[in-house]
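Sample 3 of the quickstart, ligand coenzyme A:
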Amino acid sequence: MDIGIERIGFYTPNSYIDIVELAKARGQEPDKFTIGIGQDKQAVPAIYEDAVTMAAESADQILDDSNKKDIGLVIVGTESSVDESKASALFLMDLLDLPENVRAFEIKEACYGATAGLQMAYNFVSTNPGKKALVVASDIARYGINTPGEVTQGAGSVAMLISSTPQILKLENKSAYMSRNVGDFWRPTFSKTAFARGKFSNQIYIEFFETLWKRYQKEFDVTADDFKAMLYHIPYTKMGTKAMRTLEGKISDEKYAQLQAEYKYSIQYGREVGNLYTGSLYLGLLSYLINSAVTPGDELLLFSYGSGAVGELYSAKVCENFKQYIHVKNVQSLLNNRKKISISEYESIFSQSVRDGESVDPSVVTGEFYLSEIKENERLYKTKQ
Ligand code: COA
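Result:
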C-alpha cells in the first residue's frame, strides 16, 4: 500500500522585514545576513496570530467536506505552544469544523515535531488504510531583539494530509533516526524567546546528518546517486549548505554540484520567510516541488533535525502529476502580496501581545483565523466573517 502526502498547504504572516534593513539597524554587514546566514526577508506575525491561527490557515487550504470526514488523526507539531496543557490541535476542531471521531493532540520536540507527527501518521494510515491524518507544523521562531539569533527568526505553518492515496509524495518507510540529550537550544516555560548555543547547535546538526547518512547508506544499500535531491531542515538557509559540505570529496564532484544546485530550489521560500522551526523542512519541500525541475518517480532524501536533539533521515518518492495537487498560485500570491514593515514597526509589534481581558479589532485582521480575545486567561479564536 502506498502512503504519503496527499495535499500540502502553507501559510506565513502578511508582514515582513527586509534582512538588509535589519543588518543596517544592528550595525552588521548586509552580506553577513544575506550570504553568511542566507536570508532575504523575515516574516513578522501580528499580535492576533499564533501557532493555532497559523495552523488553521495552512490546514484550511487543503481540507474540504469530502476529505474532512475521513480524518482520524490530527497532530500539530509546534514548539510555540499557546497552552501548557491543552493541545493546539483542539482549537482547530472548531476553526476547521473537524469531525469529533478523531485523535487530536500536539507534539513537541523543537524542529523535529512535524516529522514525529508525519511518522506517526504513516503508522496510523498503515493500520487504518481508509483514514487520513492531518499533520500541521506551526511555529513562531523568536530569539529576541538584537540577539545573534534574531536574523534566524520567522513564522508560518505547513499542513499535510497523509493518506493511502498520496498525490504529492510517497513516504517509503526507509528511515534512520537518533536522539541524544544535548543543550544546544531550549525555551523555558517562562520565556517567549528561545535560548541557543548557535554554533554548538550547528555542530550537532552536522554531526547528526553525517552519522545518519552513514547509517542510512549501510542499512538501505544506497548512495547519493540514488537521490535527485537532499532536503534539509533550514533554520536559516546556510545551515543545509553546511551539512551538505560534509559530502564534498566523498561523492563525485558532478553529483555534489547537482545536489547543491537542487538545494537552491528548496531554499527559495525559506529565504523569503525565515525560520518556521518544525515547518522549515516542509516549506523547503514545497519550495523544491514548485521551483525545481523534479519529475515523478524521483527520490528525495529529507533530513529533519530538532535541537535537544532528535535527527531523522528518510526518503520519499515524487508522485505522478504532483504539481496538479499543489496550490502553486496561492503560495506565490501569499508571498508576493505581503507588506514590508520598518525595523521600528517590527520592534514595536515584537513587544506587544493580547493580554487577559483584551480583545482584537477584527478589521485589522488580514487572514481568515485570529485570536479574538483572552477572557479569564482563556484564549478564544474566531474565523473572520
Ligand atoms: N559577508 C559574507 N559572509 C559573512 C560576512 C560578510 N561580510 N560576515 C560574516 N559572514 C559569515 C561568517 O563567516 C559565517 O559563515 P560560516 O558559518 O559559514 O562560517 C556566517 O556569516 C555567520 O557569522 P557568525 O559570526 O558565525 O554569526 P553569529 O555569531 O552572529 O551567529 C548563528 C550565527 C547562526 C550561530 C546565530 O544566528 C544563531 O545562534 N542562530 C540560532 C540558530 C540555532 O540555534 N538554530 C537552532 C538549531 S537548528
